[in-house]
Amino acid sequence: MSVDMNSQASDSNEEDFGVNSEEDEDEDDGGDEDDQADYYEGVASDVEQQGADSFDPEEYQFTCLSYKESQCVLTEEVNTVAAALKVSPSVAKLILVHFHWQISQILDSHYCFLCVFQAPQSLQCGVCLQVVRRDSLLALPCQHSFCKACWEQHCTVLVKDGVGVGISCMAQDCSLCMPEDFVLPLLPGEELKDKYRRYLFRDYVESHFQLQLCPGADCPMVIKVQEPRARRVQCSRCNEVFCFKCRQMYHAPTDCATIRKWLTKCADDSETANYISAHTKDCPKCNICIEKNGGCNHMVSKSYFCWMCLGDWKTHGSEYYECSRYKENPDIVNQSQQAQAREALKKYLFYFERWENHNKSLQLEAQTYQRIQEKIQERVMNNLGTWIDWQYLHNAAKLLAKCRYTLQYTYPYAYYMESGPRKKLFEYQQAQLEAEIENLSWKVERADSYERGDLENQMHIAEQRRRTLLKDFHDT
């Protein structure tokens, strides 16, 4: 929705890490009600009751573990491997890290794990070259001997730099890692030892194929899954939503490698794309400067038109597929390098503009969501129904953001997708989803003008479009 700019707007060890588990459980869910993570709460069941396909491609089983619970999981696996291989727990941890904690692979392998600490063969330290007493020399199973003072300095420096499992032998070209029971006695002071334990825990979790640390600020929670996949998970403590596989913002249907490539490209080309970041455009009929102040692309000025392509909205329903699809130049490979470079930039800006537009729409629709919440509160206070009576407005706004979030991430997917029948199918489903989201956005912004049944039916259609696209194109 838009208006004339000159007019009024329209419509860890919990003791070590300082974590109190009891307070965590009693803590408020955190975050504002318009937080994007919150949009996924309580919407799916409402839609399913209206007859939508009950299968959700984003459904994924995971468990949120506290620091102590995570330690119990790790300790149990360490004890299993230590007993099976007849090695110490500290050595078992290094083996587990090497195999990404896949115990079946370790037990099925035929590796010989050399774990016995050897007596030094020389009385000379391999670093400072000083001749010292035999009991002052220490050696790993690799038999590289160094004096205790050099070991202490080596370990202290690395731990202060944030290294945990990665502390290895000081000998050149020797990559043998030092077990924790070798390192801990060498560290001066409990503070440094506590840091080392925290770094070890971080490394153990990050190397575990079924575990991920929550990326939320100062959050000690760990997410555990049975099968590691690029799926949406949410921390029960800080409500952080992220992709389990890459720990970045959830990005379906785009895969982890592609979204990294896209975000890097956007950062590298940010100056090139600056001109499309403005919130204003000229009305195609009267040339008045207008500002987009709502989430949908259905613009109202002196005429009705599409914010993205500036085309007439009256015929837009039949042309929506063309609006969201980039028209490749089939003859570009036969043209000059300069022409190919211009075409590449044109293609990137086409997808970037739509990616950025949906991101801004999410922000604007979050404001609409807040206004709906306030309106519901006002009606309840004035005895104009209960929260249950008006819950459908709340659900509609949340579902709108959920669908638009998915739609935003379809554009990096389409940008890197190879031309062919599969891309045509994807672009068709993308256009279908986009059309229904714009219809839903228009109705949510004007909820008082539509019957409840009409709005809920639009929710049902939009969610079906979203699930169909993810079912066919989400990485499985």
Q: What does the model show?
A:
This protein has helices at 21-26, 44-48, 67-85, 89-98, 103-108, 148-160, 180-183, 190-207, 256-268, 316-324, 337-381, 391-408, 410-416, 421-445, 452-473; strands at residues 2-4, 62-65, 137-139, 145-147, 211-213, 222-225, 232-234, 241-243, 280-282, 289-292, 298-300, 304-306. It has 15 helices and 12 strands. Strands 1-10-9 form a 3-stranded antiparallel β-sheet, with no helix packed on it. The two termini are 37 Å apart. The protein has 476 residues and is mostly helical. The longest helix is centred in the last third of the chain and has 45 residues, at 337-381. It has 2 domains: 63-228, Herpes Virus-1, CATH 3.30.40; 256-473, Four Helix Bundle (Hemerythrin (Met), subunit A).
Query: N- to C-terminal separation?
Result: 37 Å
- Amount of helix: 40-55%
Question: How many DSSP-defined strands?
Answer: 12
Strand content: 5-15%
Characteristics of this structure?
Herpes Virus-1, ubl conjugation pathway, mainly alpha, elongated, 3-stranded antiparallel beta sheet, single chain, BRcat_RBR_TRIAD1, zinc ion binding, transferase, disordered N terminus, Four Helix Bundle (Hemerythrin (Met), subunit A), 476 residues, 46% helix, 15 helices
